Amino acid sequence: DVQLGFATVQVMDEAARAQRFPDQSGMGITFTADLNQVLQMGGPVPEDLRGSKGRVQGQLLVPVNAQGMPDPTDILPKLLAAVDIGLEQVDVSGFSVQGLDFKVDLKDGGLNLNTPSDGRLNGGPLSIALTADLKDMANTPAKLTLNWQGGQLNGPTGQVLRYGVPLLAGLQETAAIQGLANINGTLDIPLQLRDGEQLLDWLNRFTGQGSLGLTDLSFAPAGSLAPLAEALGDKGQLKVRDFSTNYSIRNGSLDHKLMKLSSKGQEIGLKGKTGLDGSMDYLVDLKPLLAGRGDGQKILKFLGDSDIGAGITGSVDSPELAMPDLQ
Which of 4, 34, 221, 299 yields a CA-CA distance of 20 to 30 A from 166? Predict the structure, then answer.
């Protein structure tokens, strides 16, 4: 046995190995680790992580033959493992995880990870599943499925969601954002970089789809987007009863065919895309706002199917708004 204080590692005897991994040869190992004790050891660990509670335990069969260990590139497809990861409480940078358990199984070159029971992220149930073929990492992407319902929004979550919600662009991590998030999606992730491939080229090969919804959203938009809030009848603080969209991820961008935003009894639509490099290109349909103003109905009749809207461009860090004159 190896006792490290924060972890215990034990080599299985032959009887235990044969029972746990029948008809398999190799070196069997059991291990446990305490997350809180690991983080208390010091080093470059964020301060708010030091109070985290969790554990890792599992069994591992390492392939060994007469010549010893196989070539490192051959180890992953031949490993056998069953690992339980339990995150009792983890708080870091505005994200709070409670009671989230992962089960990880590695067999015949196939990796399967799932959360058997819903833990919580920022108060909302979270489930995750991941599968990967480690025998063909160059050609077969990993498949990730995520479902998060009723999670509390804040500044840090806004930094992530601004890629799918252009109205959140330009906000700082410390921004006061309130509301609830509902996200359901799938993502195919390439497991290997191609020769000479840069990060953005790799991201361009990601594909996926899903839905994103926000309810009771309240925040002060970035200064450049404030005129849009004013057009919706809100000055300073934008209040959105409901926001929903279906999205797809392809060719390096998050594409939205139609977003719907309900505020003060009005519903407006948005369409466009956000690049994974942070660039944005959206059109906000302002016809519903025009309908309730003066000669709005006559103007709409004249416009017919033509668009009248605000353009949101720039980037998620520095958005730009082009507003038409609705007076």
Answer: 299
